[in-house]
Specification:
By secondary structure, the chain is of the alpha+beta class. The protein contains four helices and ten strands. Strand 3 and strand 4 form a beta hairpin. Helix 1 packs across helix 4. The protein is globular and about 55 Å long. The protein starts with a strand and ends with a strand.
Length: about 190
């Protein structure tokens, strides 16, 4: 049985999910964008956030979330006695990319997409209170937006409940989370179908 669950990420601050590219003199790090220059977050990043959140909860309260259920949902690796990977077992959850909703995409695509981004700069300050040479870095960030995505869940009845628990644990996403970027709120919405 396939269940498709929708999720929503509401950003509460500027955020940066990197593309690995720079824009030359404009910025050292750009936000990942689709073909229409709109921001998105890869599904594998979302999957990793949920798995990390559930693993953290499981370490503190193993009776709340059994490790076996996390492994079933996200997959796991079987190693031999020497520690080499013997087998990789796929999980039951498949995460789509998180992107702007259809209405927002239609309204913003084109020249308005440039207004979604701004550059912020930072530098390292030495012991004497003066900026260190060659330490100025500029990063492109996206303004707070709401992104949507889906999670396809195959044959797992507790998955929606586990994902709801994990969603409450996730509070930041992307780089420079300890510097105020990427504050967000995750929500698991009702299944699209059963």
């Amino acid at each position: 049985m396939l269940m498709i669950v929708q999720y929503e990420i509401q950003f509460l601050s500027d955020w940066h999910c990197g593309s690995g590219l720079s824009a030359g003199a404009e910025s050292d790090a750009e936000v990942i964008k689709d073909e229409n220059k709109l921001p998105y977050i890869p599904g594998k990043t979302i999957k990793g956030l949920f798995k990390d959140a559930l693993m953290e909860i499981q370490q503190v309260q193993p009776e709340l979330i059994p490790l076996e259920e996390i492994n079933n949902l996200f997959g796991y690796v079987v190693k031999d006695q020497m520690g080499k990977v013997k087998e990789t077992i796929a999980g039951f959850a498949f995460f789509s990319n998180a992107c702007l909703g259809a209405n927002e995409k239609n309204e913003i695509t084109g020249t308005l997409s440039n207004f979604l981004y701004k550059n912020i700069s930072s530098t390292a300050i030495g012991e004497n209170g003066i900026a260190n040479d060659a330490s100025l870095r500029t990063m492109e960030v996206c303004i707070p937006v709401c992104l949507m995505g889906t999670i396809d869940i195959v044959d797992n009845h507790n998955a929606k409940q586990l994902l709801e628990i994990g969603a409450k644990w996730i509070r930041h996403l992307g780089v420079n989370r300890n510097r105020g970027l990427g504050r967000c709120s995750f929500k698991i919405l009702n299944p699209i179908n059963n």
